Amino acid sequence: MELIPRAYQLAIYNSIMQKGNTLVVLPTGLGKTLIGLMLIKERMAKGRCLFMTPTKPLGKQHRDTVISTLALEQEEVALVNGEIAPNKRKELYKAKVVISTPQTIRNDLMTGLLEPSFSLVIFDECHRAVGDYAYTYVAEKLAGKDTLFVGLTASPGGRRDRIKEVMAALRIENVEIRGHDDADVSPYVQKSTITWIPVDLSEHFKEIKKNLDSMTGKYAQRLAGMGFPPPLKHKGNFLALGERIRNIPHNIKFPALVQYYALLHLLHMTELLETQGIYPLRGYLKKLGEKDSKSAKLLLHEPAMASIEKLCEKDEDHPKMKVLIDTVKKLSGEGKKMMVFVQYRSQIARIEDVLNANGISAKRFVGKKEGVTRKIQEETIAEFREGKFDVMVASSIGEEGLDIPAVDAVIFYEPVPSEIRSIQRRGRAARLKEGEVIVLMTRGTRDEYYHYASQNREKKMKSILHGMKRTGVGGMGTAGRVKKRDDSFVVADELKKTAKQKPGQTKMTDF
Questions:
Q1: Which has the closest alpha carbon to 332: 429, 425, 407, 434?
Q2: Which of 247-251, 267-271, 415-419 has the lowest mean pLDDT?
Q3: What are the residues facing 442 on neighbouring strands?
């Protein structure tokens, strides 16, 4: 297969060859991988090339592409993962091109199994290169004057400090960014239409929300009275408040944490109701009843909570569900393949069941946390490609990394505040032909806030990157560590998993 780059791909390639380490920001479906292949072809003569990608299935796909496109022998391109015996991995690392996950590379650099000498290192989905992610360690160990670093992503983030952190971690100064409207890109782009469909909560849902809002106001007032007014509309700041309370050396900490975690539960329940529906909320209430924490017990003794539990006994899907069914039926009647992105696992299963019950062939696509193996994931993608079902109902795992076939339409069951995730979701449509992006949004709820937050962050990201490209200001300056921001209110159990507790620190589950 011959490498025939488009004008913008060639321009980006030439920029990398002239200016060195580069961040390449290109929308999904516009050929970031081909730029990587051009670089591998050029740099192989100077030494081994390393192509890292976050997922094993995509690594396999990249290996096949490298072999077929660059006409290399099988033994010249090695696919390495941690399931391969160490002595075998050591031999594979001698190949001209090594394709692996960052975790495997990091582990083998730590143990000395991998010699840190490459002429080219490609970091796919490089926006992950923040904090303790494996990319940061690998970059530190593989950096050298003769090693070219290239980061590929559809979006490095919407904040300057995050972008600077990614660039600093990867020793990058040069930025190449293209969008659908750029003159050298637009001739190759298939346009996609974006439609926002507003829905209103039913009277039943509004009654539940009224009870939740009443309790939220009560606990917010209590927390404010202790000196910690909670920022209820901004989850990043709200989670930061919890960290602040946990770190104060004062007796008020413990009663404040009880109120804080009760409020955290309420905010999460409100989000489930507003954006997902009664079924996920019902499941959460059940889990809350099984907890032994002070905050859970406090909530369960509230009269309003008894009203909420009673109201949740009635079976009723979120108003979005009917809109989703009608929309999917219409698109299915037009012969279109679709992906439906859903934030919550329990809702994914519900949507799959409801769509199939309405005569629409649908199948869920979720991650390993749900007990799904890589083999099952690959089989699901293959079945989708072969047309064995029309609608893939996916969690965030469908947003990046995997070679999922292009679809005619992408449906967001809810907006996401992350500009990275929003861009990646949209990128699943309009690759080879015109596509549609449809976003369901509940009026007057977090859905609206997330919609505007994502839009603003995306605009800011583009402005920052274009500014860096114009001025040549790179990321080698000091980059503060930026904590990963979650896209939904995180309950205490999930916070516990990520918290690094020192001996003697307060356990979050106590509250």
A1: 407
A2: 415-419
A3: 199
Structure tokens at 107: 């582990």
pLDDT at 498 over 60: no
Residues 6+ away with beta carbon under 8 Å from 241: 228, 230, 231, 260
Q: Do domains 192-199+319-443 and 203-315 have the same CATH topology?
A: no
Average pLDDT, the chain: 84
> Residue 186: is its pLDDT beyond 80?
no
Query: Which CATH code is given to the segment(s) 7-188?
Result: 3.40.50.300
How do the domains of the chain map onto residue ranges? 7-188, 192-199+319-443, 203-315
For residues 320 and 413, give the distance between their C-alpha atoms in angstroms, rounded to a whole number: 8
pLDDT for 306 equals 93
Contact 35, 120 (CB under 8 A): no
First to last CA, the chain: 61
> 373: which DSSP letter?
-
Cα–Cα distance between 245 and 254 in angstroms, integer?
9
DSSP string for 109-150? HHHT-S----SEEEEETGGG-STT-HHHHHHHHH--TT-EEE
- Name the amino acid, one letter, at 203: E
3-state secondary structure 438-471: EEEEECCCHHHHHHHHHHHHHHHHHHHHHHHHHH
The architecture (CATH level 2) of 192-199+319-443 comes to: 3-Layer(aba) Sandwich (3.40)
CB atoms within 10 A of CB 200: 12
Assign 185 to helix, strand or coil: coil
Count Cβ atoms below 10 Å from residue 112 Cβ, excluding itself.
9
**Would you say domain 203-315 falls under CATH 1.20.1320.20?**
yes
Q: Each residue of 11-24: pLDDT tens digit?
A: 999 999 999 999 99
Comparing C-alpha atoms, which of 403, 458, 407, 400 is closest to residue 436?
Answer: 407
| Burial (Cβ within 10 Å: 0-12, 13-18, ≥19) of residue 66 | buried
Cβ–Cβ under 8 Å, residues 425 and 433: no
Closest CA to 55 of 356, 365, 276: 365
Please name the helix (run of DSSP H) or strand (run of DSSP E) that holds residue 266, with its range, or none.
helix 253-275
